[in-house]
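dumping this here before i forget
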Amino acid sequence: MVLCSLAFFILSVVHVGHSAIHQNFGQLATRTPYDFIVAGGGTAGSVIASRLTENPNFRILVLEAGPSNEGIIDIDAPGLVFNLHKSSFDWNFTTVPQVALNGRSLDYTRGHVLGGSSSINAMFYTRGSSDDYNRWATITGDTGWSWNNIFHFILRVSDGHSTAGQFDPAFHNFTGNTFVSLPGFSEPLDKTGWLQTTIGNGTRSSAASSYLGPQFIKRSNLDIVLNTQISRVLTSGNDGSKFDFRTVEFRSGKTTQLQVSKNNDSTLHTVTARKELILSLGSIGTPHILLNSGIGDKTELKKIGIKPILHLPDVGKNLSDQPYVSPNWFVNLTVTPVNATEALNQWLETRTGPLVSTVSNQVAGVEHTDLLIMKEAIASAVRFFAGPTWKDIILGPQGAFSNVTDDLSLVQFIRENSDTALHAVGTAAMSPKGAQFGVVDPDLLVKGATGIRIVDASIMPVVICGHTQAPTYAIAERAAELIKQTWVRD
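structure:
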């Protein structure tokens, strides 16, 4: 009887307090004007919402197409990451047939859940090279994007792992929002090095669980509406030289992604930000919404029946990604098979065991830009594994790679087995202020417009030499500072 009474009391407390997360737009108790509307509650959108709500004078609304990330074992347990592919938490995008890949279409996994791809990715956390960020600074003419100036934003993310001798603490932080740690379950090759991942205490640390964690979600100036699909951004006119885009159009309700059934809300809603509309829909979603709104190449828009409003030819162009191919070898290592049931029970009980690690404890790669470099990357891997360290460990090529005997068969292997690393960037790229190319200025405001800013991986002018999760966090951290500087006056 005591336990039942206590449970009832706790539930009562939860329901009378501010509930920041709503299942649809109709659940908002009030329609108080919002200063900022964040379209997309993914990696960057979660950071923006968290940082802007630090100012109690700002009211923020986040619109997210997917459901909540809470209580999903496949999301929380790092070792179950592959269960998320083609699930309801994945947008299930597919590329058009790729000529260079012998006509194959590739699955393109993107997060359809609060936290976006940070809730379903493989959790790899590599910052890239300092040259990557310095290149951004050169391209944009803004030194704020250089490594020296963005490094402190990177440190806002990392919550280091204090295992002595495994990393240099001078380049890591111990008080950041998101857990970034070294492997929690050893593998036979761990002596070769370690890969950082966004995992903490045996659990995935996503943008949703960190930047929108319990201590942030309770803020009274934040509302998050799930199951809400953005359709367009709308202009409320122009000042004679620039269009103002602070209004977003959307449908809200538990739909199957872009489908609307008779049981769901097919009504188009609109809401307008008092200060800014921030697009954080990712490298696929952001240009999609811009184009659907009449922001893009006017000639191409007319051809598909969309009325052009703002001529920005580079919207949806300039996509760069990282192809990869995996040549495999047979190895002479003793690996103890994992009992799936025992591993899951261990993780549920103690957050330890095989499921606390993701795909691999190590990763290495070469930046690939064409077939010749891919061929050299494979040749480099072959030379690497021919070294004396691997004697009696590497037995020989395995699978399709074992059929490679000459240059022609190597090219065929690459075309038949290459895939995407899912690191798309550049579809709303930043460029110098006043430039006639690009989509956003270095402050991430859309060119030729007012009231709209883009904050996600699409603004990277070129892909980095690493995974894109870390720089996306850094971009969002810097963007939050730029927004605050714009709207906070001393």
